């Protein structure tokens, strides 16, 4: 498996948005979080994020094929990952785990990372814990089906 990250630019926004819809549509159907789901983000929304000076958006590539994306929001004291997704047909292959390793290599100075996920998505929680993230703070109820939880990773 040859996973690489390619810094995205505005020309990649349409592709990223289409992948994001495919990746998050099952969760939107399951949780009905229409106001917060990345599946509902427009191409213009992705373009706005790519333009943000504190944002680095990467296409996740397996070989030459785009299989997902990850957005890093640079901040103090933490860098935040929001979102990270892999297309459904590529999930379960270790791509997300490899992406975390690559991101930490790209940002060796960063000692504090944060992300949020849906508590009910046990596979996501397991993944984040497997790569060294721990729960922090209080969960936030989005609706009767869905609760967000927050993770952090401190690199010594």
List the helices and strands and how they pair.
Elements: E1 3-7, H1 13-31, H2 43-51, E2 55-62, E3 65-73, E4 79-86, H3 95-106, E5 112-118, H4 122-130, E6 134-143, E7 146-154
Brief characterization of the structure:
With 156 residues, this protein is α+β, with helices and mostly antiparallel strands.
Account of the 3D structure:
With 156 residues, the protein is of the alpha+beta class. It has a single domain (3-154), classed as Aminopeptidase (3-Layer(aba) Sandwich), CATH 3.40.630.30. Helix content is 31%, strand content 36%. The protein has helices spanning 13-31, 43-51, 95-106, 122-130; strands at residues 3-7, 55-62, 65-73, 79-86, 112-118, 134-143, 146-154. Strands 1-2-3-4-5-7-6 form a seven-stranded mixed sheet, with helices on both faces. Helix 1 (13-31) packs across helix 2. The chain starts with a strand and ends with a strand. 26% of the residues are buried.
